[in-house]
Amino acid sequence: MAPLSTRLLIQRGRPKSDRLGKIRDLDLSGLNLVSEDLDLKLLGRLKQLQELDLSNNQLETLPADLGLPHLHVLHCANNQLSDVTPLCQFPQLEELSLEGNPFLTVSDSLKVTFLLPELRKFNGKDASTTRSKAENLNRELTTRVAAHWKKFMATLSPEEQAKAQADFVKSAVRNVRYGPMSLSEFTQWRVRMISEELVASGGTHACEADTPEGPHKATATQEPRARLVALRRLGDAPLSLSPQKRVCTSPLAPVEGSLGGSDGSQLEPLHFLQCHSKNNSPSDLKTQLWACAFEPAWDEGQAGAASQTVATCGGEAVCVIDCQTGIVLHKYKVPGEEFFSVAWTALTVVTQAGHKKRWNVLAAAGLRGLVRLLHVQAGFCCGLIRGHKKAIATLCFSPTHETHLFTASYDKRIILWDIGTPNQDYEFQASHLLTLDTTSTPLRLCPVAPCPDAYLLAGCESGCCCWDVRLDQPQKRRVSEVEFVFSEGSEASGQRVDGLAFVNEDVVASKGSLGTICLWSWSQTWQGRGSQPTVAVVVLARLQWSPTILAYFSLSTCPDKGLVLCGDEQGNVWIYDVRPLLAQRSPPQAALQAPTQILKWPQPQALGQTVTKTMVNTVVANPTFTYLTALTDSNIVAIWRRGEP
Hints:
Largest sheet: 7 strands, mixed
Subcellular location: Chromosome, Centromere, Kinetochore; Chromosome, Telomere; Cytoplasm, Cytoskeleton, Microtubule organizing center, Centrosome; Nucleus
Keywords: Centromere, Chromatin regulator, Chromosome, Cytoplasm, Cytoskeleton, DNA replication, Kinetochore, Leucine-rich repeat, Nucleus, Repeat, Telomere, WD repeat
Strand content: 25-35%
Helix content: 10-25%
Organism: Moschus moschiferus (Siberian musk deer)
Distance between the termini: 63 Å
GO biological process, one term: establishment of protein localization to chromatin
Structural class: alpha+beta
Strand order of the largest sheet: 1-2-3-4-5-6-7
Radius of gyration: 28 Å
Shape: globular
């Protein structure tokens, strides 16, 4: 593309004029412009310009001073922008389009509302919703910064306070936290601004922010819409629960202590959401929810890193929820689809300028047999994988290869894909690596923890099987290497295994039916297999579970905490701390081991709506066991939090 010229601007400007100063509307879209092509001196002559279209170019940033004081409408869709702060030069901007910029996040959307006070329309929608969310976050951040100011200054003498004010900003940015990890860029940006304003005022703003607004009360008179399950929209207040209903234990088994560790903290119900309703109807208590998965932490390389953002699927929607606030951050819908499974992976992509960006991609699949690769932050599907003839029951990514995806279908096939990395248009082109044949429908997939590149476990309708998935082998279509037999108890040979997960590098938790969860050793079982196609597992312990004859209650594990989790038909969540069991060197006990704790479904009268019965079919916790998410057959996403001791 040749540099911008006066002639080009006159050709593309409206109204037609031979003077740049008369142009009010300028279309520079689709010219393959890069940021360096935006000639400040030339564009600065457009003194009356009110609308500018820069969409469908290759812009990575906007110059800091374009000199367009009267600009009211700006279109920058489908570029490579990664920073919105230069927009502050357009204080009169009323309409803005930034869709299709893959490196802009929800944090940037919130920043826009602070930078552009006159903005009415953002990405084709009313900007008031985004502004409301930003204002709610800002109020909480202001309160927390003010509290941090008092705590920071309380330890200093008057002389030290005057010198330490500059250090306060750094301390606030480092320590003040609120909202989901996906909004951390926005919250830190605002914390810095609020802290600098606080320092400039000498701390007087801290007193104003600390003024209480009075307690929030949720009664039938004051809150006529309060109910057990509230569809979380931006700006919704969290649903309050009666303190006496926060942690319930079951008479079915003794409670041996809280699960928060030695600090005495316990799990408390936090949010009950109805975000998958058909047509957003609050009366929809029938949509079945199937699976959930926590997003990889942005700082997962650091000790104690954990995400508080969870993806859930059910009906025609996939939702991404912040567990702390209960806000539905993103919602992706496909009319006519029913999503059965979701899985995350973290990719590293390189921009055209050579910058590395971390990108969390969400895979979702279900009834139509298609895998959709979702760019959650940008809100669009960037890849579609077709390979199964029937519905996809479950999927999972390899823990060692970020682009390797396993999909398991009702067509009795498991396929290993390499989704690759996106091209310059942020589109995926997946390649088919392996096909694994099963004798029955695969229900759960589990790469073998000590050797995930070599073997894959699957819980199926007719048992538990293992496949060799090494890519250096010539066969691209394979049958199972071995079937595992549970010689006694709930999982005899040929019976359904609908729960499967590794507790640590060696111990597997599996579930069939009739009230038992089995813990068995992978290494001991594999060493004793010989050349037999059927092998009895080496059982370490059996855990007491619900005696229900119903199936498809998926178990999960929290390896860092040594926990096994599973829901049941009564709405309970069974939690087992298996570390003491696994530490025993004696032979396994014949008696079933009781759960450490059972969380019971909160009483409906405490929450404002009658939901007389619900089944919890999926339970997942984040790695640090800070948040626990449970999905029900009555269209409810329940979130528990490990509270303060």
